[in-house]
Write a structure and sequence with these properties.
By secondary structure, this protein is mainly alpha-helical. Helix 1 crosses helix 3 and helix 2 crosses helix 3. Helices cover 70% and strands 3% of the residues. It is globular and about 55 Å long.
């Protein structure tokens, strides 16, 4: 029973990181999480320790845990690997997607449009995560999928920054729609190209934000 609870809490934390529910540098307090979820601290601590071991969280003195801060160097390294593996997963998934999975993707896009209009950051990020992970999980390559999920656990908390520019939000769903049309047609290469455009466009935007953060930090320092 305790192992099942720990697994549930681990998956809950994992999904939260994938969907950007926690921000870079945010400290996760065991007692606060335990109180919010109505459980004892022990399974929460065990779930957090698993994520620390995976590199999604980092331990601090006095047994506290936080989401790692994002640096330009770290983001660049993650981005380079994401470009190599996510397009590959999409191309492999194109011929394997079921009608139900395509319906899930379409529902995600519809809700993301609504979230963009309403400036609902978390609503958008939740469905953005579901869209990508539904697509990647259809690739039928567990090693590839695990690599992608590990990368997303590290970069997901930084996705909140996409909503800091009003004009950018107008393009947040464009590449998803291009990928979906290609997937409907069974064109894996076109779907891969659309997802890689998505990664490249928004990846560069986030890299620019990190550079601005560095400039501001130097001025304040």
């Amino acid at each position: 029973m305790a192992e099942n609870l720990q697994e549930q809490l681990y998956q809950r934390l994992r999904e939260g990181l994938l969907a950007g529910q926690f921000k870079p540098g945010e400290r996760l307090k065991i007692r606060d999480l335990a109180a919010a979820w109505g459980t004892s601290p022990m399974p929460v601590r065990a779930a957090l320790q698993r994520l620390v071991a995976e590199g999604a969280l980092e331990g601090e003195p006095q047994r506290s845990v936080r989401v790692p801060p994002m640096t330009r160097e770290r983001f660049t390294q993650i981005f380079q690997v994401r470009m190599a593996v996510e397009g590959l997963a999409v191309e492999a998934a194109a011929a394997r997607l079921s009608a139900a999975e395509l319906e899930t993707l379409q529902g995600c896009m519809r809700r993301m449009d609504i979230a963009i209009e309403g400036r609902d950051v978390q609503g958008y990020l939740n469905d953005n995560s579901l869209f990508h992970m539904t697509l990647y999980r259809a690739c039928a390559n567990p090693i590839l999928l695990r690599t992608i999920e590990t990368l997303w656990l590290q970069v997901g908390p930084f996705f909140n920054r996409l909503f800091t520019e009003a004009d950018l939000s107008l393009r947040l769903n464009d590449f998803h729609e291009d990928a979906f049309k290609a997937l409907q047609a069974g064109d894996g290469k076109a779907a891969r190209a659309a997802i890689e455009q998505d990664l490249s466009y928004f990846g560069q935007f986030l890299l620019n934000l990190l550079e601005l953060d560095n400039i501001q930090a130097r001025r304040n320092g």
